[in-house]
Amino acid sequence: MGRWGWRVYAAVSRIASASKSINNPNLSRNPRIRSPVISRPRNHFSSFRHFSALPASPPYVEEFDASNHDFDANKILEELFEDDEAGKISVRAFFLCTSVDLKSMQAENSKYVIPPTSRSTNSIVLRFCGPPWETQGAAGNDMRCYRYMVVYQYGSAILFNVEDHEVDFYLQTVRRHASGLLTEMRKDDYAIKEKPLLVEDMQGGLNHIVLKNLDMDSIRIIGSVLGQSIALDYFVSQVDGMVEEFAQINRAMQKTGTFTMDRKKLFQLVGKANSNLADVILKVGIFDRSEIAWRDAKYAQILDYLREEYEVAQRFGNLDFKLKFVEHNIHFLQEVLQNRKSDLLEWCIIILLAIENIISICEIVRESIGS
């Protein structure tokens, strides 16, 4: 019998013994085991009571409390599961690159790939019985015996039930098929707790989610939200950098009344802003519909809860607002550069006209002198 079995057995034993003592009226309130009387030399000091700082409680207090409170087996078992941190499955989200070749990665790890349950092609799920150097075969039907890795085409990798010392090995598997590796990898931590006695299908918690049953669709749903969240952090940081750059330009314009920026640099900022917005909408798929959540309401509940927990819609709204600020500044600077170019062309035309007039005057003067 495993650790969980002993804990459940102890809880059930407590419930059974308490209910037996309440329902059986023939039991004595203060049962004592009587031993045969043995004559001993009388000690006068033995008749004194021991002193105690705490008042003695009647022997029937515990029975009185038990008789006036209902024992709820589910409540006791839930407390046992709640207090046990070992029941949590760690979830680690990483954003380490801007693109992953899923086809080559799937070909290299074909024996670990789990077939998809939807038509989505932007992710693959790998299941390991443990690190490859420890894998000896199947680990049974318990989901907690496996390691899972969900990899997304836009660069996120979500690891389930992976220890700290194993993280680098699994990330190296992704890096071999990645492009646009980041100098500073972004990461986030989460946890899943499986509770079969839960009345509802899921329940939220502090930096974790409680599920009645953990299955592959749950892993895909949780991985999709965490992958989008960690990727959104990266794109928000990129847009924040552009906002800060334009803020510095505006502060310089406030002091000097002009600005110095190369037209090529401005076009690069335009391309960066547009590509970030396109990546968030198309690659990350913030607004894409989940077929798993569409088929089953319990997965839709998990999806809605996690999106609300990570404030995905609000953060995308903030990102869109910042991009509009960048776009406004880009249009303004483009107009200034265009006006500068127009002024330059006007001066060129003026200079050419002046040169033409000078040449005409010189010819007239030469002809008059010659005649």
TrEMBL record:
InterPro entries registered for this protein in UniProt: DUF155, RMD1/Sad1-interacting
All residue ranges annotated as the DUF155 domain in the record: 149-319
Cellular component annotations (GO), alphabetically ordered: mitochondrion
Family statement: Belongs to the RMD1/sif2 family.
Name recorded for this polypeptide: Protein RETARDED ROOT GROWTH, mitochondrial-like
Organism whose genome encodes this protein: Salvia divinorum
